[in-house]
């Protein structure tokens, strides 16, 4: 059965930041509005945003991202840079290692699956 969810930023977000040992530049602070989660907590989706900064990432999950606003750069372990802006959609696969740099405050829809 299909479940219609309300994806909104009207409620108070969960706030956080990358662990200090992963931050490469800036003081990135992020906010998350989780809109849906399965009972087994392996799939969830909502809206995430972050202030400018750069941090190391190491994905064990699969994530579908759709950028709503802002600009970010993802750099993989080989040094390949992908710039994403409002309107872009992409998948980050499990095993992706590199960095996420928020150039201008970035907001995205996300859908994450934990294996």
Characteristic terms for this protein:
115 residues, mainly beta, Jelly Rolls, 61% strand, globular
Walk me through what this model shows.
The chain has strands at residues 14-16, 23-26, 30-37, 43-50, 53-58, 62-76, 81-85, 89-92, 97-113. With 115 residues, the protein is mainly beta. Strands 1, 2, 3, 4, 5, 6, 7, 8 and 9 form a 9-stranded antiparallel sheet that branches.
* Uncertain runs: none
Integer tally of domains = 1
| Approximate helicity band | under 10%
Number of strands: 9
CATH superfamily: Jelly Rolls
Show the helix and strand layout.
Layout (H helix, E strand, L loop, with lengths): L13 E3 L6 E4 L3 E8 L5 E8 L2 E6 L3 E15 L4 E5 L3 E4 L4 E17 L2
Antiparallel strand pairs: 1-3, 2-5, 3-4, 4-9, 5-9, 6-7, 6-8, 6-9
């Amino acid at each position: 059965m299909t479940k219609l969810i309300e994806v909104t930023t009207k409620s108070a977000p969960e706030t956080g930041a990358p662990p200090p040992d992963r931050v490469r530049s800036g003081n990135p602070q992020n906010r998350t509005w989780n809109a849906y989660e399965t009972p087994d907590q392996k799939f969830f989706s909502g809206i995430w945003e972050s202030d400018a900064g750069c941090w190391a990432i190491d994905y064990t999950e699969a994530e579908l991202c759709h950028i709503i606003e802002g600009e970010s750069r993802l750099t993989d372990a080989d040094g390949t840079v992908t710039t994403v802006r409002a309107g872009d959609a992409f998948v980050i696969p499990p095993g992706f290692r590199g960095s996420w740099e928020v150039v201008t405050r970035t907001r995205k829809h996300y859908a994450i699956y934990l294996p």
